[in-house]
Amino acid sequence: MLKKDKNQAKDKRKTFDWNSIHKRMNEVHKGIEHGWALSPEEKKERLKERAARYTRRENNEEAAHKLTEVVVFTLAYETDAGESGYVTEVYPLTEVVYGPSSPDFVLGIINVRGRIVSVVELKKFFDLPSMGITELNKVIILRDKEMEFGILSDDVTGMKNIDVERLQKPLLTMSGIREQYLRGLTNDPMSVLDAAKLLHDPRMRIEDK
User: Fold this and answer.
1) How far apart are CA 93 and CA 151, in angstroms?
2) Which of 21, 48, 91, 176 is most buried, by CB atoms within 10 Å?
């Protein structure tokens, strides 16, 4: 009986259709080759889909991390920044009119295309060293619906996107009045000013003095 079963298994192996197997494998191989041989239109569509997916991913990451654009500038050998939404322009300091009755932190006033704008020295406002201003003085004009003034900087280095959710707490050396006007520090490190709080500070209303 066992001998008969072995013979039956042997007969089944003999009837195995290898030609049919090879034919099916060739058809699969041709199908794969055809899938890679895309037409120019198909390639263009796939590239378009990839670009769309990449853009959606970037937008989602930006929304998730709440990226904020800031204007980066130097102040007393330090790198600072302010939210670009409050910065209307960067104006070169060429001529300033000094006001004898103004607070110590107010450098004076300048004429910005017919507008009289006060210029504030944050170094004095924050009790920072007064040395370090270069010949490339810049005035960063801050403005909202109610207030406008300029802050004096050594130089403006550009713009940058930061994640406000990942800002670190100010250092112990930044305690005092300066700490009140800082949103936090980046890993660079860079001090991010609270421009809105500066604009709403009643001491900045120079015309009431």
Assistant:
1) 11
2) 91
